[in-house]
């Protein structure tokens, strides 16, 4: 798998209050073709999307996050609201080392799955990663998929 070059940025860190789920962190997976791994700061939910074409990456982020939320059975009204608030993405430096650690582990696990099956569907792989126990969630809901469900229940109640 080679040496991992790490690129980590926070998506929309300056305007933390615009989405209910808060900022997303992103890194590049140096596969062929390359992919972007996004991880939500609040829930640690992972989202994978093709990196190319990079010129349209920021405009595609909201759609891919919306798809992931829909796959995880988030209410349509919530998904639409989040998508509206994510129409433009801004990149900045990371502010949460815990999320960066989780993202590094997700990238390692994604590399393993991708090595086993280079044609793996990115949405299916993200769903698999979302079921991974994460130490920051041990005292709450253990895995990002469960944390998302609990967060959605708290937000939409």
UniProtKB/TrEMBL annotation:
<dbReference type="Pfam" id="PF22016">
    <property type="entry name" value="DUF6933"/>
</dbReference>
<dbReference type="InterPro" id="IPR053864">
    <property type="entry name" value="DUF6933"/>
</dbReference>
<feature type="domain" description="DUF6933">
    <location>
        <begin position="11"/>
        <end position="147"/>
    </location>
</feature>
<protein>
    <recommendedName>
        <fullName>DUF6933 domain-containing protein</fullName>
    </recommendedName>
</protein>
């Amino acid at each position: 798998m080679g040496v991992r070059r790490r690129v980590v940025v926070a998506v929309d860190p300056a305007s933390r209050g615009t989405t209910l789920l808060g900022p997303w962190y992103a890194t590049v997976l140096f596969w062929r073709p390359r992919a972007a791994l996004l991880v939500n700061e609040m829930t640690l939910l992972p989202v994978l999307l093709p990196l190319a074409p990079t010129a349209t990456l920021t405009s595609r982020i909201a759609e891919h996050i919306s798809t992931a939320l829909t796959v995880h059975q988030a209410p349509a009204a919530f998904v639409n609201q989040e998508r509206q608030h994510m129409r433009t993405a801004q990149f900045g430096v990371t502010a949460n080392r815990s999320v960066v650690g989780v993202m590094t582990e997700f990238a390692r696990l994604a590399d393993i799955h991708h090595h086993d099956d280079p044609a793996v569907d990115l949405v299916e792989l993200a769903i698999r990663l979302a079921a991974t126990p994460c130490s920051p969630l041990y005292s709450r809901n253990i895995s990002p998929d469960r944390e998302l469900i609990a967060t959605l229940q708290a937000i939409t109640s």
